[in-house]
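Q: what sequence does this backbone want?
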């Protein structure tokens, strides 16, 4: 029997002008994004190791990619 894929809605929650959280619709934390000068740092889950990105969209996409990879 094939595993059913359940769609998950996500939302980007503004903490302030330089901090965001990406969460599922159930409130589960996917990751956080911090603006660092002209770059954006994304942290998956509770990791302390950041990935650097050019803009907020790129950082958000990276967190979604990491989330999808770690769901299986």
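A:
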């Amino acid at each position: 029997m094939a595993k059913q894929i359940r769609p998950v809605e996500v939302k980007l929650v503004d903490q302030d002008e330089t901090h965001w959280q990406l969460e599922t619709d159930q409130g589960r934390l996917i990751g956080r994004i911090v603006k660092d000068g002209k770059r954006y740092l994304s942290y998956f889950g509770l990791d302390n190791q950041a990935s650097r990105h050019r803009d907020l969209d790129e950082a958000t996409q990276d967190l979604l990619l990491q989330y999808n990879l770690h769901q299986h």
